[in-house]
Amino acid sequence: MAPAFVGYRPGVIADIVGLHARYYARHFGFGVQFETLVASELAAFVAAHDPDEDLFLNAVDGDTLCGSIVIDHTVAAHRDGAKLRWFIVGDTQRGTGLGRALMARAMAFCDAHAYAPVTLTTFAGLDAARHLYEDFGFKLVKEDPIDRWHGGVGEQTFSRPAI
């Protein structure tokens, strides 16, 4: 059965943080500083977001979070656009098309709200994600050696203009 798409439900913040913490620790050695950064920023977003202006989309199979994506227009104060954040697909769902489905819904939301540009911040080495971003019109616009995730990686900023 395909996952269902939902917004907020109790426990989803912890589930999203957990997916990020486990994946990035296992593959990139990220630790407590990364996990607490994701937790604090995600909690602030969920507490303050406006469902009419922001997308908080989660794919679930029963009680299991399979993936998540956020379009942040309110908290990040990108009044001329929005920021794509906390995009992740769980290990068992990678390669199933769930990431593409989440991204398609998120970009349709941005297009319906005329959010442009849509930006995202990531780092080199996430090749499957980068390929997906580029499929949806994102272009690499900036590279910076700053390591705000405390994992020994620099930042990359991608931007998607109006489509």
Total domain units? 1
Based on the coordinates given, report the CATH architecture.
3-Layer(aba) Sandwich
| Overall geometric form | globular
* Structural class label: alpha+beta
Helical residue percent? 25-40%
Largest sheet: 7 strands, mixed
Our Rg estimate from Cα atoms comes to: 15 Å
What is CATH's topology name?
Aminopeptidase
Strand content: 25-35%
CATH superfamily: Gcn5-related N-acetyltransferase (GNAT)
Low-pLDDT ranges: none
Q: End-to-end span in angstroms?
A: 32 Å
Number of E-state strands: 7
Characterise this structure.
By secondary structure, this protein is of the alpha+beta class. It has one domain (4-160): Gcn5-related N-acetyltransferase (GNAT) (Aminopeptidase, 3-Layer(aba) Sandwich), CATH 3.40.630.30. It contains 4 helices and 7 strands, in the order βααβββαβαββ. The protein has helices at residues 12-28, 32-48, 98-112, 127-135; strands at residues 4-6, 55-61, 64-72, 82-89, 118-122, 139-144, 155-160. Strands 1-2-3-4-5-7-6 form a 7-stranded mixed sheet, with helices on both faces. Strand 2 (55-61) and strand 3 (64-72) form a beta hairpin. Helix 1 packs antiparallel against helix 2. The N and C termini lie far apart (32 Å). The model has no long low-confidence stretch (mean pLDDT 90).
